[in-house]
Structures are given as structure tokens and as C-alpha cells.
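A favour, since you know our C-alpha cells better than I do. Just paste the record in under my message, thanks.
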Amino acid sequence: MTIEQMRARWNAVWQSSGSHDRRDNVFEALATAYGAPDRHYHTLTHVADCLETLDLCRDDADDPMAIEIALWFHDAIYDTHAADNEEQSAAWAAREIGGEWAENVRRLILATKHGAAMSSDNDESFIADIDLAIQASGASMATAAPPMEPVEIYPLDEHGVRVTATLVQHAPVFPALAYRFDTPSGSAVFSGDTGPCDNLVRLAHGADYLVHEVIDLGFIANRVADLPNRDNIINHLTESHTSPEDAGRIAARAGVGTLVLSHLVPGDSEIAEEEWERRARSQFAGNVVCGVDLDQFALGT
């Protein structure tokens, strides 16, 4: 999320909580705290990653609004030499929120404390899982697919087959990998789920086939238009999946022979195969095929 997207999200949750005073002041104070120069992980990027993960599963929470407020404050106080960061963060949140929300938010923040006992409370477990999942994966836009060269995961065998892989951009999922198969007859690359990613361009360089996922973001935007978190859903899909036009650009940059469009969203023929292909061809002069289940493509022919 951009800083303005985060500000808009903060304004919405602050308004929904019934708090009206000091909205802008509190946001600026939080942004300043998370933006301190000695912070490398507990930043606004971490908060954004947590919020995006919440969006993917908020229907499973009992009180997603309280969890969202708690996520904003859960690392607001961070002193590497202190043992009560969560307590101080919880106290700050309680002072700002007040009313019936204060105790619930304070309790949820304390559930993120390292070493806290496992809770039987659904929302306490929920927020702890979100926080730990982001820490375990490192899966922010900045860290999910750092620039790298392809890594050999299956050395050249007696049949002349070699497999390489690279990290691709599918935050908050980590690791997400693309694979390349080189054979005496030719080469094929499978993108897996990913947004546009330079690592994939390097992996697919000169391949005969690039099998790449595609999504129609306009179609999905219309489908989720009435959902309260529609903007967050679209932001996530834009960053973590690829339009047919961008798939065409990736294929052109990599210099592949054939682009095969796969993992179509929406599926079920809601968009004609010819339309998927037309959109990819607008950015790629090579061969484009809309893949369907059980399609087979021969190498070396």
C-alpha cells in the first residue's frame, strides 16, 4: 500500500470505531513511530502486510474491526532494549480509542507479545497468527522476491534434463517459485502465481515456452464492487497476479518462443480464449496460446 492508501484505510477504520477526535494526529503519530530510522522490520510496510493478510481471512474473525485497530498499534512502541513494547503499545491504543473498544484492542495487542501463552480465544489466536505469519514469511512486496539469478534445483541428469527455479512476486505468500525445465529438445518455464517480476524474466530468457498465469482485474473489480474491502482486494490482486498485457510484456522481455496463458481468472469461459490471446498479443509479437485443461505442447517440433 502507498502512504495515501494507508491513510485512507486508517481514516475508515477510525471512523467505523466511533472515534472522531484526533484522527489525523493519531495517524501522523503512528506513521512517525513506524518510520523511525532505527526500524528495519517493524515499519508501516509490516502493518500493511498484516492488514492485507487480514483481508484474505477476515470472515473467520469474530471482531475483525478490533483486530484491524490492534494491528495498527501492535508494534507502535518498539525499543530493542525494552521488554514491555506490547504493553506500551496497548496502553497507547487504549488511551486514543477509549470507550468499549479500548479493552478489547488492548487484549489483542498483548496477544502478539513474543512468548505469550497460546490462547483459546479465537481473535487472540487470529491476530497472533497474522503477526507471526508475516514474520515467518518475510512476504512483503519488498522482500518476497528480491533480485536473484535462477538457482539449479535438479542438476543435469543422464537424459539431459536440468531444472532451475527463482522466487516470484506473490506476497503475502512466501516462498512462491517459478520453474524452468531445460531438455535436449527445448525448454519450458512455468510462472506459478505471480505478479510481474524481473526474476521471472531472467529465468525465462530464451525459453521455447512460457506458461504464465493471467487475471482480468477489471472483471474481478466489478465482481467485488459491493464488498467493503474491495480496494484492498484489488490492490492485493494487482500486486500478486498478472494481467494478460503484462504477461505479454514479460514474454517479450524474456524473448520466449510461445506464451501459454494459464490459471485464467475468471475461469469457466467467462472471457473468450480469443480475448485473452488478443490482449497478450498487444504486447508480444510471438506465438500466444490460451491454455485449457489437458492441452499438450511438444518441444523440438
Q: What stands out?
A: The longest strand covers residues 258-265. The first helix runs from residue 3 to 16. The chain has a mean pLDDT of 87. The beta strands are 151-154, 162-167, 177-183, 186-190, 209-215, 258-265, 287-290.
